[in-house]
Design a protein that fits this description.
There is one protein chain. The protein is mostly helical. The chain has one domain. Helix content is about 65%, strand content about 5%. The chain is built from six helices and two strands. Helix 1 packs antiparallel against helix 2.
């Protein structure tokens, strides 16, 4: 079980790097577009469509499982922290089960939509250019599928009582200060 969690963490971390690269490329693309618009009086064609349909979709859906892996999704625990520990564990497992079901259904549905868009070659017209966008429809089932796998793994690991191989550690502000040589 532990090895499966480590593998899942590596895949999730790799996908998050891809999401980060999409953000960096988006910033570079927009910067070049603005610079070429004002310096050369010639903007880069298709910037709005590429940013909207490629970079943003990748930046949002690909790293979705990373937040779950790190237990970083927003949660409100006003009531649950006052409940007995055994009830808290059952509620946590129920939320894992419900999340796994929802994200599995989202994976299937978004895959069907991606196949439909691919079948007729969905694209957008910007200026004189036709930009294919059907490719980006596959990002949603990849992101939702990875999220479903992480939540399902957490459910199984919790039910079996085994040690999770998921990397749940988060960078702390103190660690970041020490790493940059500027420690306290």
């Amino acid at each position: 079980m532990y090895g499966t969690g480590r593998l899942l963490s590596m895949v999730t971390n790799l996908m998050t790097i891809i999401g980060g690269l999409a953000i960096a490329l988006m910033m570079l693309h927009i910067t070049l577009d603005i610079a070429s618009r004002y310096i050369l009086n010639s903007p880069i064609p298709g910037t709005i469509s590429i940013v909207s349909y490629y970079y943003m979709v990748i930046a949002v859906f690909i790293p979705l499982a990373f937040a779950e892996q790190k237990n970083a999704h927003i949660s409100v625990e006003v009531v649950t922290t006052r409940l007995p520990l055994w009830i808290q564990h059952h509620l946590e497992r129920f939320s894992f089960l419900l999340s796994a079901i929802v994200f599995s259904l989202l994976t299937v549905r978004t895959w069907e939509e991606a196949e439909k868009k691919r079948s007729f070659g969905a694209s957008v017209i910007q200026g004189n250019d036709s930009i294919p966008i059907w490719i980006t429809y596959y990002v949603l089932p990849i992101g939702c599928g990875l999220m479903a796998l992480v939540v399902f793994y957490k459910l199984v690991s919790s039910c079996l009582g085994t040690k999770s191989g998921l990397d749940v550690s988060r960078a702390q502000a103190d660690e970041l200060d020490a790493d940059d040589g500027m420690g306290k």
